[in-house]
């Protein structure tokens, strides 16, 4: 089946953050939304059909274990990433950010130090800070080859830290970490008794021939010291269904984490997550392949457009996912002027790079998980705004 990613979908007034929270966040409802990381494409029909089929039954009472939930996850991870997961190492979590909050609370104490590598997804900072933990920054290095993890710097700041939160692949810049980097990271963290949370929510969406490397598979050490989070939520545009899970291969970590999860019934799934997950992972390969091809073309479109029309903005090509990290430093604008250019002059809602922490200043994150026609309009508006300054 051929899917149509050019089909317009009106998402307004569906209580979706991306459209219906524009006014609250940007003070204007008329912006083109290219911020929150979900896509404007229709959730694929095989997922909607599976949910609809369940809704045909007139009772939505408490749910017990769905027979294909864990088998579909295990098969998907094996097929896509060559990762053999024992089903007993899996637990449902009600969202990955909440999962990170659970790890922070179970494995660290108030005042403990937690490492993150900015610029990075802002809840990596907010969740520890809002739980009274101290953030230790290990900023990424921006080299002529793109972003690299600064492992030397990590050695110099890691003493006394308890946890490192890894974005694999890295949001906002869509970086695929080389296997050697992940292996060295595991070795350093292991030597210093630091637990690694690997957030792999974007891992199904590698582009341009790149491949995902699950952190837990890079070495025995990585397996021993890690808790991995993943989900079909970004991949299949079902973030509102809450479909995340964690993988904890190490016995001691798992015993500690899962006993807390069970004690608090955090793994009670509800009816819909397993239905959507099983449909996505059993039937989603072809849709995903087509969606990623479409997104690749969108990325190339933004690159070409900037090269031809907006020389002050250089898009960094993502290795994965539908977010493009725009290097706007060439425009020579300070933080407020850059935001004003996008919002007030261009009428666009992007994520301000500074929210992702040190190193994000002068960048903007653009969500290209949308129709080409919308992207074309956005780029035209941006070019006109830049020309006006
Ligand atoms: C790296 C990363 N982790 C987690 C999330 C959110 O996950 P959840 O909605 O499951 O909390 C996002 C959403 O943008 C993300 O980019």
SSE order and pairing:
Layout: H1 17-20, H2 22-26, E1 32-33, H3 45-55, H4 69-81, E2 90-92, H5 96-107, E3 113-116, H6 123-130, E4 134-137, E5 141-143, E6 146-148, H7 151-157, E7 161-167, H8 179-191, E8 195-199, H9 220-224, E9 226-230, E10 245-247, H10 251-263, H11 272-283, H12 285-309, E11 314-316, E12 323-327, H13 335-345, E13 348-349, E14 351-352, E15 363-367, H14 372-387
Parallel strand pairs: 1-13, 3-4, 3-7, 7-8, 8-9
Antiparallel strand pairs: 2-10, 5-6, 9-10, 11-12, 12-15, 14-15
The structure holds pyridoxal-5'-phosphate.
Pyridoxal-5'-phosphate binds next to α5.
Outline the structure in words.
The protein has 389 residues and is α/β, with parallel strands linked by helices. The protein has two domains: 17-44 and 285-387, Aspartate Aminotransferase, domain 1 (Alpha-Beta Complex), CATH 3.90.1150.10; 61-282, Type I PLP-dependent aspartate aminotransferase-like (Major domain) (Aspartate Aminotransferase, domain 2, 3-Layer(aba) Sandwich). The protein has helices spanning 17-20, 22-26, 45-55, 69-81, 96-107, 123-130, 151-157, 179-191, 220-224, 251-263, 272-283, 285-309, 335-345, 372-387; strands at residues 32-33, 90-92, 113-116, 134-137, 141-143, 146-148, 161-167, 195-199, 226-230, 245-247, 314-316, 323-327, 348-349, 351-352, 363-367. A seven-stranded mixed sheet has the order 2-10-9-8-7-3-4, sandwiched between helices. A four-stranded antiparallel sheet has the order 11-12-15-14, with helices on one face. A two-stranded parallel ribbon has the order 1-13. Helix 5 crosses helix 6 (123-130). It is globular, with a radius of gyration of 21 Å. It starts with 16 loop residues before the first helix and ends with a helix. The structure holds pyridoxal-5'-phosphate.
């Amino acid at each position: 089946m051929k899917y149509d990613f050019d089909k317009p979908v009106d998402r307004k007034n569906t209580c979706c953050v991306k459209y219906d929270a524009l006014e609250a966040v940007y003070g204007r409802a008329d912006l083109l939304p290219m911020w929150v990381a979900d896509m404007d494409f229709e959730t694929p029909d095989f997922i909607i059909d599976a949910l609809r089929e369940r809704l045909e039954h007139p009772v939505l009472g408490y749910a017990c274990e769905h027979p294909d939930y864990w088998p579909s996850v295990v098969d998907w991870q094996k097929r896509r990433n060559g990762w053999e997961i024992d089903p007993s190492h899996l637990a449902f979590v009600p969202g990955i950010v909440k999962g990170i909050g659970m790890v922070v609370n179970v494995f660290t104490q108030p005042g403990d130090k937690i490492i993150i590598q900015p610029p990075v997804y802002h809840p990596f900072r907010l969740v520890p800070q809002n739980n009274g933990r101290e953030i230790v920054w290990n900023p990424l290095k921006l080299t002529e080859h793109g972003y690299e993890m600064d492992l030397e710097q990590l050695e110099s700041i890691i003493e006394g830290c308890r946890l490192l939160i890894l974005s694999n692949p890295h949001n906002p810049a869509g970086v695929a970490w080389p296997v050697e980097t992940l292996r060295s990271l595991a070795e350093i963290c292991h030597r210093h008794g630091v637990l690694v949370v690997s957030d792999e929510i974007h891992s199904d969406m590698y582009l341009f021939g790149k491949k995902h490397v699950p952190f837990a598979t890079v070495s025995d050490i990585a397996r021993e010291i890690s808790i991995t989070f993943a989900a079909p939520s970004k991949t299949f545009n079902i973030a509102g269904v809450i479909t995340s899970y964690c993988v904890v291969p190490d016995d001691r970590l798992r015993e500690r984490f899962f006993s807390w999860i069970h004690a608090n019934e955090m793994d009670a799934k509800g009816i819909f997550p397993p239905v959507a997950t099983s449909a996505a992972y059993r039937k989603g390969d072809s849709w995903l392949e087509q969606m990623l091809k479409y997104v690749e073309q969108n990325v190339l479109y933004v690159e070409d457009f900037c090269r031809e029309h907006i020389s002050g903005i250089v898009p960094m090509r993502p290795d994965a996912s539908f977010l493009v990290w725009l290097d706007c430093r060439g425009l020579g604008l300070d933080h407020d002027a850059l935001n004003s250019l996008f919002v007030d002059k261009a009428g666009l809602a992007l994520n301000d790079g500074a929210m992702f922490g040190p190193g994000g200043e002068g960048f903007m994150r653009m969500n290209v998980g949308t129709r080409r026609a919308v992207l074309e309009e956005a780029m035209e508006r941006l070019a006109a705004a830049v020309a006006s300054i």
